[in-house]
Amino acid sequence: MKKNIGNADRMIRILIAIIVIALYFTNVIGGTVAIILLALSVVFILTSFIGVCPLYLPFGISTRGKQE
After folding, report:
1. pTM score, two decimals?
2. pLDDT of residue 1
3. What range does the domain containing 23 cover?
């Protein structure tokens, strides 16, 4: 797959995931909301490391900028 996530997008995704995980472990969020947000955090981390966002593909979105 062609990578479609830029560096800024990766950093934002990782930052959001870290914040959600910190909120969970400090018991600020809990229950079903916490489970949903933790699952979303895992997806954010995985897509950040892989460099491909499957939701961007159908819409042709890329945050990588111009490619050579």
Report:
1. 0.86
2. 80
3. 1-29
